[in-house]
Amino acid sequence: MNLLRRLLGDRTPAGFAGALSPGEDVVDSAVVEGGGHLVVTALGLWIPSDGEARRIGWHLVGKAAWADGVFTLTESVEAGTAGSAVVLADLPPVQFRLASPGKVPREAYQRVEGSIRSRHRQEIGSGGAWFVQRKVPGRDGTVLQVRPDPGTNVELVAAIAEQAAAKLVNPVE
C-alpha cells in the first residue's frame, strides 16, 4: 500500500500522527529514532510531540542544523508584539536522530531561508537583536520579527521594532 500511495503522489508516511491541512502536501519525511517522523510541507515542519505530531511554521523555525545523524531544531515562539512587529523568544533546542534523513535537512534549510525576505543585526547596549522580515506560510505579505539576545533590554528592542514596523508599513517619502 505504501508503494501505491507514493506512485499516486502521496508522500505522507504510514503511521503519521498529524492532520495535514487541505492542499498541504508532504515534500519529504524521515523516521525519527524513538518514534514519529519529521515531515516537511510547504506550511512547515511537522515534529513528533507527546505521541502526536505538530507543525511548526517555517517563520517560527529559529534554527535548524544537521550534523552526525542528528537534526537539531530551535523553535521560536511569539513572546509579544510591538506595533505590527512580533517579538520572538527561542525555546531550548531539541534533537531528532535520523537514520535515513533523505532530503529533510536540505528541504528544511531551504524553506527556512526561503521564508526570510531581509535580516538585520542591531547591536543594542551590551547585547543586540535580529530584525527579520519573513513570509508566513499560507498568508500574504511579510511580518517583521525581532529576536533579542538573552540579557538585552526587551522593552528597548520592542520600541525600536515598533518604529521600524511603522516605517515599513508607512514609508516616509
Largest sheet: 7 strands, mixed
Q: What gross morphology would you assign?
A: globular
Indicate the structural class: alpha+beta
Task: Report how far the terminal alpha carbons are from each other.
Answer: 60 Å
Poorly predicted parts = none
- Tell me the Rg in angstroms: 18 Å
Q: Please, what is the average pLDDT? A: 90
Number of helices: 3
Using DSSP, what is the number of strands? 11
The fraction of residues in strands falls at over 45%
What does this structure look like?
It is a single chain. This protein has 173 residues and is of the alpha+beta class. The protein is built from 3 helices and 11 strands. It has helices at 2-7, 104-115, 154-169; strands at residues 26-31, 37-41, 44-49, 52-57, 61-67, 70-82, 85-90, 94-97, 116-124, 127-135, 142-148. The strands form 2 sheets. Strands 5, 6, 7, 8, 9, 10 and 11 form a 7-stranded mixed beta sheet that branches. Strands 1-2-3-4 form a 4-stranded antiparallel beta sheet, with helices on one face. The protein is globular and about 50 Å long. 29% of the residues are buried. The model has no long low-confidence stretch (mean pLDDT 90).
